[in-house]
Specification:
It catalyses: S-methyl-5'-thioadenosine + H2O = 5-(methylsulfanyl)-D-ribose + adenine; 5'-deoxyadenosine + H2O = 5-deoxy-D-ribose + adenine; S-adenosyl-L-homocysteine + H2O = S-(5-deoxy-D-ribos-5-yl)-L-homocysteine + adenine. One of its GO terms (molecular function) is methylthioadenosine nucleosidase activity. Pathway: Amino-acid biosynthesis; L-methionine biosynthesis via salvage pathway; S-methyl-5-thio-alpha-D-ribose 1-phosphate from S-methyl-5'-thioadenosine (hydrolase route): step 1/2. The protein is of the alpha/beta class and 231 residues long. It has one domain: Rossmann fold. It is 37% helix and 32% strand. Strands 5-9-8-6-10 form a 5-stranded mixed β-barrel, surrounded by 4 helices. Strand 3 and strand 4 form a beta hairpin. Helix 1 runs parallel beside helix 6. The longest helix is centred in the C-terminal third of the chain and has 26 residues. The protein is globular and about 50 Å long.
Length: 231
């Protein structure tokens, strides 16, 4: 089994990259793909860059050049579910854009033409990740992740997203674009992110301070998930 892993920033893929054996690196436009092995699995690790366009471009390149059997999106997120604290894990069951709006043509908020209302993560992958989180003694929420080209920082932005998506658990800037590409290419996916900030007016300060903790936690869960995935 070949596993594709996507992180936006260098910090979000650093731990995983350091553990790869027989590593080869290639640059495609602004994306970097590292191919090698982690444990028994062939792994293609993408550092996509930040934002939806970078994530979509990188994920497309990853699928076309490496043909992964599934894709895991890792990294950090802002928590909106009251049960989530810094360092906790958010697992996607659904993913959508919070900044897409073609409701004038009868689509739901966050839905784009030719796409489902929300992108559905692979249930088998969700189950494996949930088992890993429980075994590791981490706290996790499985729920809706909303993506947009904004760092959510402030009461008004949070209120808007909660009004449009009442069940939202976390926000970030790439997962929906990754899920969109996986949907188009019929590649199973799951998002595993750790909370770096609880979205509020001070979230930018929290993000800088707690990103290393979030990256460590999300990387640990990804590594343990790889161990449980069978060829």
């Amino acid at each position: 089994m070949k596993i594709g892993i996507v992180g936006a920033m260098a910090q979000e893929v650093e731990i995983l990259q350091s553990l790869m054996q027989d590593k080869q690196e290639k640059q495609l436009a602004t994306c970097t793909i590292y191919e090698g092995k982690i444990g028994q699995h062939d792994v293609a690790l993408l550092q996509s860059g930040i934002g939806k366009s970078a994530a979509a471009m990188g994920t497309t390149a990853l699928i076309l050049t490496c043909q992964p059997d599934c894709i895991i999106n890792t990294g950090s997120a802002g928590g909106l579910d009251p049960e989530l604290n810094i360092g906790d894990i958010i697992i996607s069951d659904l993913v959508c854009y919070h900044d897409a709006d073609v409701t004038a043509f009868g689509y739901a908020k966050g839905q784009l033409p030719t796409c489902p209302e929300k992108f559905v993560a692979d249930q088998k992958l969700i189950d494996v990740v949930a088992t890993v989180v429980e075994e590791q003694g981490q706290h996790a929420v499985t729920g809706l992740i909303c993506s947009g080209d904004q760092f959510i920082n402030g009461i008004e932005a949070i209120a808007r997203i909660r009004q449009d998506f009442p069940t939202v658990a976390a926000v970030e800037m790439e997962a929906a674009a990754i899920a969109h590409i996986c949907y188009a290419f019929k590649v199973p996916f799951v998002v595993i992110r750790a909370i770096s900030d609880v979205a509020d007016k001070e979230s930018h300060i929290s993000f800088d301070e707690f990103l290393p903790t979030a990256v460590k936690h999300s990387s640990q869960i990804v590594l343990a998930t790889l161990e449980k995935l069978v060829n």
